[in-house]
Amino acid sequence: MKWKKILCIIFLMGLSSSQSQISGVDPKVLIEIFGTPPPQQAAPIPTTTNRPSTTFSTKGLNDLIDEVFGTPKRQNYKNYPENNPGINVNIPENDGCECVNYYLCSNGTVVDDGVGLIDIRLGENTCNNYLEVCCSPSDILDRDKRLTPQPQVRRGCGHRNFKGVGFRITGAENNEAEFGEFPWMVAVLRPDENSVNTQEEKKFYYQCGGSLIHPRAVLTAAHCVKGLNSRDVVVRAGEWDTQTQSEPLPHQNRDVSRIIMHPNFKSGNLHNDFAVLILSEAMEQAENVDVVCLPDKYEIFDNTRCVASGWGKDFFGKDGEYQVVLKRVDLPAVNHAVCQNSLRETRLGKYFQLDESFMCAGGEPGKDTCK
Prior knowledge:
Blueprint: E1 5-9, H1 27-34, H2 61-64, E2 79-81, E3 98-101, E4 117-119, E5 132-135, E6 168-170, E7 185-191, H3 193-196, E8 203-214, E9 217-220, H4 222-225, E10 234-237, E11 252-261, E12 275-279, E13 305-310, E14 327-334, H5 336-343, E15 358-362
């Protein structure tokens, strides 16, 4: 049985905070930023599960990256509204209550730390948004008294909130992630040209996903930002449901000051499909915003489980639609040689060479990043 493979890319690098060279492009800096493919005969360093805690600091970032090297076709993506009201002014006629964000209601339906169960299917909810409840006017809290998740002690990079932040969802039928489950997940957006310089509500178009690897640095795919200027890109962290701002914690938007493409990126075959976006200012650490760990250069992931997350299309090709709620799917990592041999059985042919910059994952029926 032939395996269906998904070619994922993983960034094999460490973001150093040391001073390298103020002007010009130092090859050593390129290696520190983008890493190098592991030697064919090198012995792998054993995978470790305990990673050291990292400091949420911006010190040294501008010293490390001083100069940059070197327009995707416009597509019709779903809009990202910048501002939505927190309270729905529609009052159900027969209930004598108001639809408010669930954490603004102290009627006993949620506990003191803001945690509750939220059914993302509307079902019998009289409100139009699943994050709202019908609350008696006497139980509505002021915004400065709202029930928000209690801050947790930071446990280092890459901490996944398996149970979500502020609430847990039920009724998830399409691999929806919990709110705040992947705090390093960001959305790379493009401002809508028609709303930037007008009095209209500012809107954005979804470009692709990315990972927060430093408070001021985002790792993404080079093909997503190829041909774009830094002013054409906005990064949003802490997002979950793109069509509402009723979540218990807000998202954070940052402009991009610099786009750094991998010097060996090839758009034709997507070799070295990596880019780093340097943000205009650091993201603020929160329960739904934090950095991910980066693997060691020679770390091996064969036969381990990895999780892909994002707002990507539900189907491959022109019929696919971008998602509203963040999705997730777990996949097995596949050995590079095994993946290459399987791909040689396709129309790629028996001489196909899988570049070292690719990582393979998948092969399980009905599970991939497009569904």
